[in-house]
């Protein structure tokens, strides 16, 4: 768009010069472009009708820089599942005041192509199937009809895939047993090691406790019971903390 | 019928405002072969909207080989993937050859019983311990059993009676296991048992099948030849051996006369 160079730019030249000025050439060019586009669409529509086909509108592709018009694609079946739990347990930041209406990003499922937001998975999937979404993503509302050859090819491909999968799954029992043995051996030795360390720690602790009890005159006659209780409650003993 | 494109879902085919001019089966809208209640449950289901949307006869195979059970409705009257794909087939209305391609399964080798025991028992005897029979369709040999069941169901719904008998009866020598999911849980069945149900029962997989004359009626009308028993060739050279054990074959008309 041509940018008017300030409303009061040429104030000195005359009375009416405060009015906006327009770049006439640019707008003329735009109009010509639009007319050409509409004419070509009319022509295509007419040709499709003459050929007995359905007219499929062309869609814009590309960004601001290079605008092109491309034929819409036919619908293809989904290759993967729609990941409805993609944003589960995630914190999302949404603009303030985006609670009402479907426009704009908000909590829930967001469709970027149509700038719409849905709070319900079934609604969202329905939207992805809708004409509105198809048009926005450059798709027609038709599916290519399969021929017998396509079916045969697909079946052969699926069989091949299955066979490869089965081969990958095949396993050697002896090898797996050996592997298992190795793992078990490792685990056993680790367990042994842990036990040893624990035992050692327990012995050390016992020795320390013994020394505490001995040093504490008050607990001498009650012995281990008091010491245990004191340890459970989180302090060294029932006696005074003052130096004896 | 020379369509060049399919529709992604059943919306347009059902929303006819009393004026339907699409392809017909049994001179009616194919989708109406399924009762209204279950049809609407299917169309409301997530599988239909997500997985069955935009399929054609070729991409439908992707979903069909992933099936792991057959059945109509399960749990809280939810439609199974199997029945959703049946509706999809009705909507797509594929050519005859494509359906025949679905049911033929060259990977699967028929096993002829060595004794004259009833077929299935003999088969299990031979294959009893192998994973082919045990697992629920994951081995290469089991890739197509659910696809076959799907196509067989479609044939029963859509094709004329004589053709149904001619096409489905040969499948009765397929004794592979199928899982059947019902409202109350899973049940075990076999391909031949399923085919037999399709040919003789009125309701299978929670769908009322179109009325079909019995085999005898069609034979009387000369539309069908008398059925050739599947076991005749085996009986002739094994004569006199397992006489006591000779049983009736599931669904078959009759075996050869005993000596």
Radius of gyration of chain B: 20 Å
* Number of E-state strands of chain B: 7
Shape of chain B: globular
The termini of chain B sit apart by 53 Å
**Gyration radius of chain A, in Å:** 40 Å
Count of runs of 4 or more consecutive helical residues of chain B = 13
Structural class of chain B: mainly alpha
Keywords (chain A): Metal-binding, Nucleus, Zinc, Zinc-finger
GO molecular function (chain A): nucleic acid binding; zinc ion binding
Biased composition (Basic and acidic residues) (chain A): 198-208
Domain C2H2-type (chain A): 111-133
Description:
Chain A has helices at residues 24-50, 121-128, 131-136, 148-169, 173-215, 224-233, and strands at residues 58-61, 68-71, 73-75, 109-111, 116-118, 139-144. The model of chain A has no long low-confidence stretch (mean pLDDT 79). In chain A, the strands form three sheets. Chain A has a two-stranded antiparallel sheet with strand order 1-2. By secondary structure, chain A is mainly alpha-helical. By secondary structure, chain B is mainly alpha-helical. Chain B has helices at 11-14, 36-44, 46-51, 60-64, 81-92, 96-103, 119-127, 131-134, 145-158, 161-168, 191-200, 215-220, 232-237, and strands at 5-6, 73-74, 78-79, 177-182, 185-190, 203-204, 207-208. In chain B, the strands form three sheets. In chain B, strands 2-3 form a two-stranded antiparallel sheet. The longest helix of chain B has 14 residues, at 145-158. The N and C termini of chain B lie far apart (53 Å). At the A-B interface, helix 2, strand 6 and helix 4 of A face strand 1, helix 3 and helix 6 of B. Strand 6 (139-144) of chain A pairs antiparallel with strand 1 of chain B.
């Amino acid at each position: 768009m041509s940018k008017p160079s300030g409303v009061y730019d040429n104030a000195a030249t005359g009375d009416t010069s405060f009015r906006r000025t327009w770049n006439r050439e640019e707008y003329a060019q735009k109009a010509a472009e639009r007319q050409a586009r509409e004419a070509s669409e009319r022509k295509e529509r007419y040709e499709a009708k003459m050929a007995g086909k359905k007219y499929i509108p062309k869609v814009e592709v590309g960004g601001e820089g290079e605008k092109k018009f491309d034929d819409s694609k036919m619908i293809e079946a989904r290759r993967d599942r729609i990941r409805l739990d993609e944003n589960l347990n995630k914190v999302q930041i949404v603009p303030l005041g985006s609670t009402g209406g479907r426009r704009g990003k908000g909590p829930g499922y967001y469709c970027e192509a149509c700038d719409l937001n849905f709070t319900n998975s079934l609604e969202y999937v329905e939207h992805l199937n809708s004409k509105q979404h198809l048009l926005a993503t450059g798709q027609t509302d038709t599916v290519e009809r399969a021929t017998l050859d396509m079916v045969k090819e697909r079946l052969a491909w699926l069989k091949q895939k299955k066979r490869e999968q089965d081969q990958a799954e095949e396993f050697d029992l002896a090898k797996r047993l050996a592997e298992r043995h190795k793992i078990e051996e490792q685990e056993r030795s680790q367990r042994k090691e842990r036990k040893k360390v624990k035992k050692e720690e327990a012995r050390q602790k016992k020795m320390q406790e013994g020394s505490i009890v001995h040093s504490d005159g008050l607990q001498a006659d009650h012995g281990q019971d008091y010491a245990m209780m004191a340890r459970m409650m989180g302090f060294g003993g029932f006696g005074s903390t003052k130096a004896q | 019928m020379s369509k060049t494109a399919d529709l992604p879902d059943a919306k347009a085919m059902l929303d006819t405002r009393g004026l339907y001019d699409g392809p017909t089966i049994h001179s009616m809208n194919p989708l109406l072969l399924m009762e209204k209640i279950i049809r609407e449950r299917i169309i409301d289901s997530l599988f239909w909207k997500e997985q069955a949307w935009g399929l054609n006869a070729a991409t439908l195979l992707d979903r069909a080989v992933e099936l792991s059970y057959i059945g109509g409705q399960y749990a809280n009257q939810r439609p199974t993937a199997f029945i959703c794909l049946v509706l999809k087939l009705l909507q797509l209305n594929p050519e005859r050859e494509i359906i025949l391609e679905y049911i033929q399964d060259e990977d699967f080798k028929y096993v002829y019983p060595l004794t004259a025991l009833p077929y299935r028992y003999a088969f299990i005897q031979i294959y009893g311990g192998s994973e082919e029979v045990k697992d629920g369709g994951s081995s290469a040999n089991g890739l197509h059993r659910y696809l076959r069941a799907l196509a067989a169901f479609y044939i029963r719904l859509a094709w004329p009676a004589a053709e149904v008998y001619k096409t489905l009866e040969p499948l009765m020598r397929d004794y592979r296991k199928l899982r059947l999911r019902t409202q109350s849980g899973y049940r075990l069945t076999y391909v031949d048992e399923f085919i037999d149900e399709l040919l003789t029962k009125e309701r299978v997989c929670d769908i009322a099948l179109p009325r079909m004359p019995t085999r005898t009626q069609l034979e009387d009308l000369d539309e069908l030849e008398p059925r050739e028993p599947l076991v005749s060739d085996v009986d002739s050279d094994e004569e006199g051996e397992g006489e006591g054990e000779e049983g009736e074959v599931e669904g078959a008309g009759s075996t050869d006369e005993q000596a």
